[in-house]
Amino acid sequence: MNYSILNLGLSSALNTMFTDIFHARGYSYHSVSSISRAFQHLQNNHVDLIISSMELEDGNAAIFMEKMNASDFGRTPVIIVSAHDSLEIRKKMFDLGVIDFIPKNINFEQLLHYIQKLTTQDQVIKELGKMKLAVLDDSASERQIIQQILEIYKIKQISFFSRGHDLLGISESFDIYIIDLILEDISGELVIHHLRQKNPNSIIIAISSIDHYKTISSVLLSGASDYVIKPFDQNIFIARISAHVRAYQLLEELRQANETLNRLVTQDGLTELYNHRHICQRLEEELKKAKRYKKDLSVVMLDIDHFKGVNDSYGHQTGDQIIAGVAAILSQSCRDIDIIGRYGGEEYLLVLPETNEVNAHLLANRIRKNIERFSFTLHNADINALQITVSGGVYAFRNLGEKGSDMIKRADQALYAAKNEGRNRIN
Length: 427
Description:
Blueprint: E1 4-8, H1 12-24, E2 28-32, H2 35-44, E3 49-52, E4 55-56, E5 59-60, H3 61-69, E6 78-82, H4 87-96, E7 100-103, H5 108-130, E8 133-136, H6 140-152, E9 158-161, H7 164-168, E10 176-180, H8 188-198, E11 203-208, H9 213-222, E12 226-229, H10 234-266, H11 276-293, E13 297-304, H12 307-314, H13 316-333, E14 339-344, E15 347-353, H14 357-373, E16 376-377, E17 385-386, E18 390-396, H15 404-420
Parallel strand pairs: 1-2, 1-3, 3-6, 6-7, 8-9, 8-10, 10-11, 11-12
Antiparallel strand pairs: 4-5, 13-15, 13-18, 14-15, 16-17
């Protein structure tokens, strides 16, 4: 749905300018000249923003705002555009709930900035509606007030608690916590401290009628994201939560970007296995653990037999399908603790923690048979399916002086011997 703007005013020149500006940017725009027609439009249409002049056909902006505040549309943001500007007029209109007052010699960039900000805020509220909230307050009336405020903004994934120990005793985690400081069974500040240790990325809002700076600073140091003093205005309360949700979203985007970057650095693009550099790095890490804790560690080097012939006969796209297909079989055949990488070309390296040479041979042979039995479905070749084989070399960690590169060299030598002895075998 397009962002919808309702203009309320008498100026046809301003209406023409608004029509051109807003339609050019893809906004839905409608104009009326009276309060009565504005409410008729609101009753029949969704409106995201109202722009109102001070003087109207059947009243003025102050009367309109009083009626808005008494109606079901009181949450719709209103901006005043007027040639009449004074501190007294501005204070009156802000007291009635307008979100901005812009002189009629208007800077349209300023108005568009506000619309962009409101669009972003609307997205934040939608995101807030998807998040899980926990509210801890031992007052039933306070819980009801908070529930009413949150439900106005269509936030319904809310769990309510009257005792701090009940909240701390559950394993479920929440995106947002709203915690009263004064509780019957435990200090709200202590609850916040425990929640922050358990949920380092959650938003934690402390609420209290205590407004002493020492209390506020102590609670914030205990792990609260913010401190809201009771009784609180619903708009300010939601605005404070929304500000933290925006920061939460940015951190989540940064986390996802870092995960993507990490995949690009560590993962082979074709097979989604670890790449050469990272599998060698993981081998060195596992070798250190094996030496420190006196554990078994084995490596397996696998190579697709006659792979050059596959590329020559069916093309490199078919070769890529085979490489990716073998990688999928490896992933399905190994344990969760096993580490698999594409060593290079059609070669794969398996790092097998807590696995001796006998068991490494058993696994490698099971993989070899799985691949031999598998019929690779092809999308780019003259034939529909192809069967291949692999050869492998196994080597187990033997002495403290060995490096990861030494183990790879020994496994590669065993692989070379398997190739010389006829392929489709494990040495």
